[in-house]
Design a protein that fits this description.
Chains A, B: Pathway: Amine and polyamine metabolism; carnitine metabolism. 2 copies of one chain form a homodimer. By secondary structure, chain A is α/β, with parallel strands linked by helices. Chain A is 51% helix and 10% strand. Chain A has 2 domains: 6-178, Rossmann fold (3-Layer(aba) Sandwich), CATH 3.40.50.720; 188-330, N-(1-d-carboxylethyl)-l-norvaline Dehydrogenase, domain 2 (Orthogonal Bundle). The interface between A and B is large, with 116 and 116 residues.
Chain lengths: 354, 354
Amino acid sequence: MARIRKAAAIGGGVIGAGWVARLLLNGIDVSIFDPDPEAERKVSEVMKNARRAYKAMLPDGLPREGKLAFAGSIAEAVAGADFIQESVPERLDLKHKVLAEIDAHAAADAIIGSSTSGILPSEMQTAMNHPERLVVGHPFNPVYLLPLVEIVGGQQTSGEAVERARALYASIGMKPVVIRKEIEAFVGDRLLEALWREALWLIKDDITTVEELDDIMRYSFGIRWAQMGLFQVYRIAGGEAGMRHFMAQFGPCLSWPWTKLMDVPELTDELVDKIASQSDAQAHGLSIRELERIRDDNLVAIMEALSRQNRGKGWGAGALHKDYTRRLSKLAQKPTISKAAEKAKAAKARRKKG
Amino acid sequence: MARIRKAAAIGGGVIGAGWVARLLLNGIDVSIFDPDPEAERKVSEVMKNARRAYKAMLPDGLPREGKLAFAGSIAEAVAGADFIQESVPERLDLKHKVLAEIDAHAAADAIIGSSTSGILPSEMQTAMNHPERLVVGHPFNPVYLLPLVEIVGGQQTSGEAVERARALYASIGMKPVVIRKEIEAFVGDRLLEALWREALWLIKDDITTVEELDDIMRYSFGIRWAQMGLFQVYRIAGGEAGMRHFMAQFGPCLSWPWTKLMDVPELTDELVDKIASQSDAQAHGLSIRELERIRDDNLVAIMEALSRQNRGKGWGAGALHKDYTRRLSKLAQKPTISKAAEKAKAAKARRKKG
């Protein structure tokens, strides 16, 4: 099975630190570069949450954690790494600069994944000497818990790199989905963006508050989508007549004059203020760290609940979770001494006996 | 506490039958009218699933089920009902006809809820003599499990009716959210519609298959939205800097040229065929009934998992689930004999003893 031996993380924000946490908790050493003087503290905060979540997932013990090293440069961070994940801010010029530097110093066969949530890999790989090993590996927050990673190759990406990336992401418990055509924002963020834009209108026009809108989601289709996606859910909603019936019934709505759906709301200061203050009210005094812990507990509980469904085989993210935690448990039980040391020990025992 | 004494259901499709199931399992008698000769069989199929799900929720026993009567007319169905739920197909002319008939025969103070997922209550209540008691009560499938109901009043709806509707829906374990302004498709379906339209483009353009798209949802933001909605999730994603930071970072994407988002895809036969056949493949041989049972098991398991979170107080739909199942358990333990009969029994026992 594919295995990451040593990883590098370039960028340690919410997403970068999430990658670091997933890798370390899989027992993989990580070298990180982030020029932010606060990076070490921020990464350690995310690690604290991640360790807590994995302890809940693995009550019998965690694998030995990988070692984390803070590098002074990109060159230093990528030295010796066979897997490099870039998670710097979403500016093409910055991506070019950072990827060129990674490219110059990384082993020629290292896989380079970019966490970009929207930029085309073809546009990012133009400044690289070995563009064939760059893929987009777009994760979802919190990266240490949510399994999805969208893999997108650019025009110069090799099919082999896509396959290796898929295997490497799967080896750390993720669900890789390869997107077959390169489009801005890929698939997940296209869907999120459509919903987000509509949500902004609903807040702007005072139809709901952010708390009411969130409740509308999490007491209805949110629960559905934790286990089946849009199409499977609608297949069932069609009842005995199935998908065709559903399409016939619901399809015509598409051209109804819900014009707001089609415009882009302007993010005025007024709208940002409204959302920020309604969001403060919705938090009911809980800090971001407290909300994070509640979220993580909930996510683990949902995946565990799904891991016991489908006659014990697990369903969706639950089936993956079952497999992932089983593998991590095995890794945790693995003796830390090497095979050679084990042999020597056995030989010594034989001598004593004899 | 508000209580439905006798309910009527007009329409027994997937949604109507879901209402019937929720009401009966709450111990409420229901009279249903549906001209479909297959209605009785269809409703009993839904009841079978619902009973199964409630048994999983309430291992110590269910409340005594309400009685179901199939009425020969709307007039017969609504006689004596204090709560009437209309779930007929989404055509305004049909809604007018059915609501006029309900209105003519129902008690003047009965609450009338419409399951419409998009038509304005103001447009529906024009043909009624007592329009003040009509509200939209828009549920989500499966109605017997998903708690959300969007309540929307029309121009002629009284504030008192909205409040009574809220209390009655809450009394059968639901999460009522009152939408403060009347707009087509309300809130939930606005959000669903935005995402659905974008999904159709992604399938039409062969970016993904329906199975890949569903996986992208259920291994990422689907799990998140089962417990926190869009805004709370993004508040956390902003990290320590919170909501403002998130808006500043993600906001500009809104005006990027993702033009496809803004057009309506045409539902050609070709697109319908593609989706229907990809959906067949995705079902992996499972029938609609089998998929329904898997879905229901998953939904119950997720709500149960969430009911144990937040230091045992439950979180979101889980907190509601905890309260709902507790109330149903109490109802199940209620002796079915009357207080008078109980007294007489006790007196008899005393006589025997003495």
